[in-house]
Amino acid sequence: MKLRNVLIVVKDIQKSKKYYHDLFGLDMILDNDGNMILTEGLVLQEEKYWKEFLGKDTVWKGNCSELYFEESNIEEFLEKLLKLYPDTEFVNTLMTHSWGQKVIRFYDLDGNLIEVGTPA
Length: 120
Description:
The chain has two domains: 1-58, Roll (2,3-Dihydroxybiphenyl 1,2-Dioxygenase, domain 1), CATH 3.10.180; 64-120, 2,3-Dihydroxybiphenyl 1,2-Dioxygenase, domain 1 (Roll). The chain is 26% helix and 33% strand. It has helices spanning 13-24, 47-54, 74-84, and strands at 6-10, 28-31, 35-38, 42-46, 67-70, 90-96, 102-107, 113-117. Strand 6 (90-96) and strand 7 (102-107) form a beta hairpin. The relative contact order is 0.20.
């Protein structure tokens, strides 16, 4: 068995597609009208389809999972993030763990938690 993708729920799939391309360089592989597969295995699902499938409301900022990315030049990434998306809500700004890894945590446009860290 293989894990093929990770799916996150978004309010506006086109805005999220742009966000993940702008910041992480992810490109669209397949667009299935409300369900979009991006490179690196990230799938975006529009909220209305997710809600229809589950029959429940979406809980934004659930804080029970995060997307993790690595970036060698984290300071440059942080500058790009602040320039392109100045209203970003941070969990923590740039910090250094005791083992030397630098990380930042923030929410995407829809409250999905993201961590960007330097390679360990």
